[in-house]
Write a structure and sequence with these properties.
It contains eight helices and 19 strands. It is of the alpha/beta class. A hairpin with a 7-residue loop joins strand 2 and strand 3. It starts with a strand and ends in an 11-residue tail after the last strand.
Length: 331
């Protein structure tokens, strides 16, 4: 799936927007798709490197089934090379790795695990789910048959072709919008900005529930100008898209930058609201109060949170308990 044969036994991968041309015996940028004599193989099908039960808020998804749990899975590999990746030890593997790390799970195993933990969703997360699309699709089909919804936590580099297939079984997603400068994407992630913006637009066209996250990194994407451009773009797509602005902590190959000052996150939230966004959340700073959900119409507190935990939920049948406004999301 998702590739074409070229002359000389080369193949062109169609799974993500890198569209890698891969010579025989070589792998794509993700390190987990290999050309074997003109046939492109996924090296991570059924090879789960991380799994566990998370609150849906950890994805983060705040306006999608709040207070429920999600069975989360990942395989090794990623099509980005983010310098501050928090999961670099499972996402960044060598092109020459012979034994792909992880343990074997069938799609049925994953769905069974989700049902055993009474999870309402299965989340494809931790690394980049696009690189294990074939496995994810088989899990997603079984999940829907079992009444379980599917969630992608993605960098947004999925190709239009792949997303068209995935969207048939996908219920919600969170896309990382890491910056609003193509130069930053190229330098810090090894990718481009425009395909990510296109994917965000495409999610809305496909009527998938979408939330967007921006990790605010000092000296990289924390200027008021850039934060406003991000907020304005999201609002132009749909003011109902929740925007999560998260605090950066030094990770991986970006250890010299300090954690994001809380004041910058507060200002980013103000900017999001100024640009018309209805739901703007601050992440990685539990207890600050700006992780709550408020009614966009009457401003009443609807969901009170501490970190990923819900203290109180006053949404009634998808509406504000006070003014009756329809609250955007799936509740």
């Amino acid at each position: 799936m998702f590739y074409e044969k070229l002359a000389g036994d080369k193949v062109k991968c169609h799974l993500c927007n890198h569209f890698c041309t891969i010579a025989p015996g070589k792998r794509g940028i993700c390190s987990v798709r290999e050309n074997r004599k003109g046939v492109l193989y996924s090296l991570v099908y059924g090879r789960v490197i991380a799994s566990g039960v998370d609150p849906i808020e950890k994805k983060p998804l705040f306006n999608f089934l709040p207070g429920t749990e999600s069975f989360s899975i990942a395989t090794a590999g990623c099509n980005f090379k983010c310098r501050w990746c928090q999961n670099w030890n499972i996402s960044q593997i060598s092109m020459t790795t012979k034994e792909i790390p992880g343990h074997d799970m069938t799609p049925a195993d994953v769905v069974w695990s989700a049902t055993q933990h009474d999870c309402k969703t299965i989340a494809y997360t931790y690394t980049e789910p696009t690189v294990f699309t074939e496995f994810a699709l088989d899990v997603m089909k079984l999940a829907h048959k079992s009444g379980i919804k599917n969630v992608f936590v993605s960098n947004g580099y999925t190709s239009e072709e792949a997303l068209s297939e995935i969207s048939q079984y996908l219920d919600a997603g969170n896309i990382d919008l890491k910056a609003f400068r193509d130069e930053t994407y190229r330098k810090m992630c090894g990718a481009r900005l425009e395909p990510v913006l296109d994917t965000i637009r495409r999610y809305k066209e496909l009527r998938l529930w979408l939330e967007v996250t921006t990790l605010v990194v000092p000296s990289v994407n924390d200027s008021e100008e850039e934060l406003r451009e991000i907020a304005r773009f999201v609002a132009d797509v749909d003011v109902a898209i929740p925007w999560h602005i998260s605090q950066f902590y030094p990770q991986h190959r970006f250890l010299d930058a300090p954690p994001t000052p809380v004041g910058i996150l507060h200002r980013a939230r103000e900017i999001g609201i100024e640009e018309g966004l209805r739901y703007v959340y601050e992440g990685n700073i539990p207890g600050m109060g700006n992780e709550n959900t408020y009614c966009y119409h009457c401003k009443e507190l609807l969901i009170k949170r501490f970190g990923f935990n819900i203290i109180e939920n006053r949404i009634k049948d998808g509406k504000c308990f006070n003014c009756g406004a329809e609250i955007d999301g799936i509740f």
